[in-house]
């Protein structure tokens, strides 16, 4: 194996790995908490609507 | 045949540029295409601007003569890392602050005329010097190939650039860049692999038997490893702060577009370059005796692929010249009209008048570029030595200091810009006239960058920021592009679902491109390792 040739293609590969890693880090740090919060709010809203449906059923 | 291809391709680009100009309705469209840039358009303009004639002519020639690893293994690696920094660090931060041009940042951060004027002078010298010399170099090669006289060719290029820049502004540049990228990709995906296929991997590897060190980082000239490492560092600094790349993110629709463009664009940079450099190595097998090595890829297009593909190759070469030149010149026009006339001189103009001023500035730049390129005064060659790298020594310390350091102030910015740029020219001139000898692993750019950083820190510690600078720093630290993007998307109908979709899409692209890169570079390693 020619090590200099390996360095060229390793560097080309690592460039993409680095850019993807940085983007994934930004997504997880800056976007994921907001998305999780939105999902929790959605679940909460769903639960409360099911609860009110159940109460309506019971009152009938 | 080649002249016909030249005229047809140029006419095609001009027609598309003229059509796009109809979409420009106001100043915002002209400067940042109304911030409507999709992922395809931002990737297109980023990758097309990155790949200049330097790759297809100068570095391809060096790869042919000394070996494909000499520049690619470390120097180009620095350029790829620099591009990532330009987009994801500096570009994103500036867009979050609402900058429409890079000088906007200096204006917002310091509100100081000296800083604004010095940064504008650096920008105009840097962009014009670097752009004109590329136009001259590539124009001379194309003139030789097509038989069209050099002055006539420059006039034609200027008319085309006028259509993109004066009529279309950033809209024209981004759309034509994206279309041009496809001809450049044809070189990397079809034409260069055909040349490599004709040469054969085995014969290419065997070049090392007849030309010692051909497949090494030192290359046939046996350059010291220290030189390659210094090139790596220099190219990181060069690309991280060059307005041509940083400003590509300003027209983007939102943060997700920038993140996706960063992954795809930074994959395309080595993909487009390395395959061309390998094809230049293949040309050493097919035609070992080329004397004017700058023409190696042009000879490959004309002699070693079918005529139609050769024509597309020439169109790709033209695209690499025009896409880089159009970006450099449109930004120079913006610097004159928006940053100098409107911001520094405080000329408040209506939307309509501002758009007109922007177009007049583009016409002025085009006339200057055309005159310099045809006259070719010796001074332009001298300026071009320093023009491209001037942003690394003149702007980068101030930009990073301005973004990250609480004590950063206008005095430190002025000191750093002046000391960085003057020391760069003085040290390099002394070295070229042999008054001093620089170690082989130290480039004059590295010394002057260090001088700029040290002067910035010393002046910053000895002086204090004023109230405006302290307030803006606090405000800046509370501003983020992700928050702005989240708020904008959640305002839309089904905002939460759209946000999740964008998140997933960006994540999938990030992960899948690691796989694509592994396959592409793994294949070449198996064949040439």
UniProtKB/TrEMBL annotation, chain A:
* Skewed-composition ranges (Acidic residues): 40-50
Bias type Basic and acidic residues, positions: 51-60
Q: Where is this region: Disordered?
A: 40-60
Which keywords fit this entry according to its UniProt record? Membrane, Transmembrane, Transmembrane helix
Claim: Transmembrane helix is one of the keywords in the record: yes
Where does the chain cross the membrane? 6-27
Superkingdom classification of source: Bacteria
**Name this protein carries in UniProt:** Uncharacterized protein
Q: Give the originating organism.
A: Alkalicoccus saliphilus
Automatic annotation (TrEMBL), chain B:
Biological process terms from the Gene Ontology for this record are: sodium ion transport
Catalysed reaction equations from the record: L-proline(in) + Na(+)(in) = L-proline(out) + Na(+)(out)
Transmembrane parts of this sequence: 6-24, 36-57, 69-90, 117-142, 148-167, 179-201, 232-250, 257-280, 312-336, 357-374, 380-400, 412-432, 444-463, 507-526
Name the record gives this protein: Sodium:solute symporter
Its primary localisation, in coarse terms, equals membrane
One annotated GO molecular function: symporter activity
Superkingdom = Bacteria
Q: Which InterPro entries match?
A: Na/Glc_symporter_sf, Na/solute_symporter, Sodium:Solute_Symporter
Q: Localized where?
A: Cell membrane
The entry assigns this protein to a family as follows: Belongs to the sodium:solute symporter (SSF) (TC 2.A.21) family.
